Amino acid sequence: QYVDWSREVVPPGKPLPSASRFHITFDFGYVALDIGHCVPEDAGEYSVKAINNLGQCTSSINLKVIAKGSIILDSQRPEGLEKIRQLEEAQPFQRPEVPEAVTRQRPVFTQPLQNIDSIAEGATAHF
C-alpha cells in the first residue's frame, strides 16, 4: 500500500515537489500533509490517493492562502526617515575650482622602479 499526494496545477496531477516545507506522513493508516509556512504560490487543489492491491481511494481539498504584503512600505526606523530626507535634499559637495599650476619643466623620475623578484599569489604588489 502506498499514498500519493499531488497538486492540481499545469500539468494536472503533478506530484508534490520534494521540498523542506512539505512533510508527508503515512503511518498505520494515518495520512497527512504538512506545509510549513504557506506562501501564496501554495494555493490550489491538493489530492491524495491511497492505493493497495484491492483498489484505490482519492480525496481532495482546496487550499486558499491569504497573502501578506510582500513589499515592506513602512519605515522600520521612522525616527531616521526625516534625516534621510534632509540628506537626500542637500546639495552635493563641489570642489572649488583651482587653476592648474603652470610647469616649465619636463617630468623627471627621482628613482627608477625596482623589480619584484618574488611575491606570493594574492599578495599586494606595490611599485
Q: Explain this structure to me?
A:
By secondary structure, the chain is mainly beta. It has a domain at about 1-65: Sandwich (Immunoglobulin-like), CATH 2.60.40.10. The protein is about 5% helix and about 30% strand. The protein has one helix at about 80-90, and strands spanning about 1-5, 15, 20-25, 30-35, 45-50, 55-65. The strands form 2 sheets. A 4-stranded antiparallel β-sheet has the order 2-1-5-6, with no helix packed on it. A hairpin with a 2-residue loop joins strand 3 and strand 4. The longest helix has 9 residues, at about 80-90. The mean pLDDT is about 80.
Notable features of this structure?
127 residues, mainly beta, Immunoglobulin-like, four-stranded antiparallel β-sheet, two-stranded antiparallel sheet, 1 helix, 30% strand, Ig-like_fold
Q: Which helices and strands occur, and which strands form pairs?
A:
Elements (H helix, E strand, L loop, with lengths): L1 E6 L6 E2 L6 E6 L2 E6 L8 E9 L2 E9 L17 H9 L38
Antiparallel strand pairs: 1-2, 1-5, 3-4, 5-6
The side-by-side strand order for the widest beta sheet comes to 2-1-5-6
Distance between the termini: 75 Å
Overall shape: it is elongated
Name the CATH architecture of the domain at 2-63. Answer: Sandwich
Strand pairing plus helix content: what structural class? mainly beta
Mean pLDDT: 78
**What is the element string, with H for helices and E for strands?**
EEEEEEH
CATH domain class name of the domain at 2-63:
Mainly Beta
Strand proportion: 25-35%
Largest sheet: 4 strands, antiparallel
Q: Compute the gyration radius: what is it?
A: 34 Å
CATH fold-type name of the domain at 2-63: Immunoglobulin-like
Individual helix count = 1
Q: Could you estimate the helical fraction of the residues in percent?
A: under 10%
So, the CATH homologous superfamily of the domain at 2-63? Immunoglobulins
Domain Immunoglobulin I-set: 3-65
InterPro entries: Ig-like_dom_sf, Ig-like_fold, Ig_I-set
Pfam family, one: I-set
Protein name: Immunoglobulin I-set domain-containing protein
